[in-house]
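Hey,
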Amino acid sequence: MTIEELIDLQEAGSRARVLGLASHENPYLKPGRTPTKDTIALEDWIARHDAWKFGWEAENASREGKIVSFFSNIVRPNRRQVLG
């Protein structure tokens, strides 16, 4: 996946949140979208799923007034989360 595709997927997740979609409505969670036999395809699917989810979560945090803590957790994750 290119950086442009990554950004597009993050923007799509953000737009989905703006439109009122729930996080579980990630298009990569639709039946039949998850590759099962090809490791490389699965890694690509995970990256795309996570990019969309990141965009959705960032927009959600922004709407809830929690954007600073959202990004702080990414930059400085809680030690228990990392070790746990």
